[in-house]
Sequence to fold (62 residues):
Amino acid sequence: MTARNTHNAALIEPDFEVLGWQHPEAGARLWVGLVAEAALLELRAGHEQGSVRNALWQFLPA
Fold:
């Protein structure tokens, strides 16, 4: 799982650079962790969780 998370973070790191994050690598790695946790919450619930998805977006600048 760590290798997959590292790979996914590397894929989205350029997006964090474009968004102007001061530390895009760290931001990308943390984002991957947040998304993974959101997926686990939805898995446990057995369906999409609108509140969880909306909360994820609040971590990114408009």
Observations:
- The chain has a mean pLDDT of 94.
- DSSP finds three helices and no strands in the chain.
- The longest helix spans residues 24-45.
- The two ends are 30 Å apart (CA to CA).
